[in-house]
Amino acid sequence: MQVYPEFITEHEEKALLTELEPVLRRMRYEFDHWDNAIHGFRETERSQWSADNAVVLGRVRGLAFGAEHAAAALPHVHVLDLAAAGHIKPHVDAVRFCGDVIAGLCLVSSAVMQLVHNDKKHLVLNALLARRALYIMKGVARYEFTHAVLGGEESTWRGERLPRQRRVALICRTRPRPQDSRPDVKSGACSDTEPGFTL
C-alpha cells in the first residue's frame, strides 16, 4: 500500500469535480450494493475526459501502472461518490473484474482506510487518505488484505476523531489476470503509518 499526499493541486481537483458534478447530481445515493460491500454511495464509470483532466489521470496511471502494467490498464475510471454517512465494508476487490493494481485519487475530503490480513487478523494497517492524495494497492496489499473506508465512530486517525464527510474517489484498475477471468473463480467486492508506507 502506497500513499502519495497532495498528488494533485486544488485547481486540478476543482477541474475534475467540475466535470463530474453534473453527472453525480443526477444520481441518488444507494444503500445496497451487489456484494454488500458499500453503504451510502453513487457510482459511475467514465472513459472520456476533458484534455486537462485526461492529463491528470494519465499521471495517475503512469505512477500506478508504469511500463509493466500500462498495457493492462482498464480504459474506464470508476467514480465512487461516498456520502458523509456512508462507509465501505472490509472486502477484497473482485479478481474477476480487476487485476494486480488498484489506484485511487481522493477528492472532496479525507478518510481512513483500514487493511486487515485475510488470515492473520492481528495484522492491521490504518492509512490516512487525505484529500487530493493518491493511494496504490498492489501485490500483498491487493490480494492478501481486505480494505475498508471507516465510517461513524470508527473513523479515527491516531486517536483523534476524523469526522466523515462526502468523499469522491477516482479509481483506476488493471485488467483481470488470465487465471482469474474464468467463470468458476470466486470473487469478492473488488498500526498507523506515515504517508508513503509500503505494504
Automatic annotation (TrEMBL):
Highest taxon in the source lineage: Eukaryota
Cofactor(s) of this protein: Fe(2+)
InterPro entries the UniProt entry points to: AlkB-like_sf (IPR037151), ALKBH7-like (IPR032870)
Swiss-Prot/TrEMBL GO biological process terms: DNA damage response; fatty acid metabolic process
SUPFAM superfamilies, alphabetized: Clavaminate synthase-like
Region (Disordered): 176-199
Listed GO CC annotations: mitochondrial matrix
The name this protein goes by in its record: Alpha-ketoglutarate-dependent dioxygenase AlkB-like domain-containing protein
Organism phylogeny: Eukaryota, Metazoa, Ecdysozoa, Arthropoda, Hexapoda
